[in-house]
Amino acid sequence: MGSELRLSPRERAVLTAIVETYIATGEPVASHALARYFGNKDGMSSATIRNVMASLAEAGLLDQPHTSAGRIPTARAFRFYVEHLGGPGGPQVVILAPERLEQIEESFA
Length: 109
Fold this sequence. Notes:
The chain is mainly alpha-helical. The chain is built from five helices and two strands. It has a two-stranded antiparallel ribbon with strand order 1-2.
């Protein structure tokens, strides 16, 4: 993990979608949900997304809680998101509600 992680634009788009969807729902994110998220643009079919998700998992950015589940971002993915993908102008400071903070902490326990 010492070297700088380099992601393609497609990998960045999928990782961003997974992190943001996971933050919004607290549930593992499935490829078919991301296919709906992207619509039919940029050739982002469920199969393409599954291949990108596999690549992101190999890079240590996604976990799969069990075989039939979607993927969840790892601590490394959240770090990457905050440092590189946090929207225009870079990372933004967000104040979390105490119950949301507790939910996030429990997910990493």
